[in-house]
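ok trying again, last paste got cut off:
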Amino acid sequence: MRRRPRRRPAGSERHLPWSRGPAPAAADCERIHESLLAQPVNSLTSLAYVGVGIWIARRARSSPTHLRTAHRVLGATVAGVGLGSALFHGSALPAGRWLHDVPLAAIPLFAALHGLGGRRGWSPVAGTRRFGAGVVGLGALFAAAPDSSVAVTAALAAVAGASELATRERVPREEPERRRRRRLLLAGGGALAVGAVVNALGRTAGPLCRPDALWQAHGAWHVLTAAALGAWAALGLERARPVRPGGRDPASPPGPATVGSRP
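nice, full thing came through this time. structure:
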């Protein structure tokens, strides 16, 4: 009588043939396969970030001049999250965790620097340089201490949240615009909150964990957080710059009285 092959349990720590250690996404419930994609659903849903990143970058064409670089940089970063996550869940290569964690931490880093740069009047080039230096620092830190990624990302998220609260007084007061921004805030915040709950309940051995299902809680987290990032990009990047002392918005063109004057 032929013996049936043993099925690997959800979140199995068994090594994949091409990796040098246990599958890095073992806590994300989906059964790990010894095939082209270790976790097919979690890998493919990661591409939602790529789609949202492209959408954000394309918005640079119609955005104000001082925000075009921010749209392109954020779009590339969000797309990088998708590619890193797809490799993390799909390949189980030794570098998969690093490729996943660095762009993920770069998102709150961008948010924090974007708010700080708006208050201090950084040029797009200066802001991009600071962000690039920060990403390099994250890469070096996570390569030397991979287990620090969760704490560092959480700390950056807290700083980014404080930055957003510090700039909320610059929201336009026109009623139609306020309603639009309120809808974006509710949609993005709701998607993030639902995604966080579903992801927590769908971890390996959690009540929503279904290792062989086409619906994966962590895959839903990918799609919902990608939507939340898109809403935040439309909400946060369109916020007006603060008005400098003297009453003129630094993003506005100089009036007749200021032409030829030193900024």
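cool. The chain has eight helices and no strands. Helices lie at 40-45, 47-58, 65-90, 96-120, 124-144, 149-166, 175-201, 217-236.
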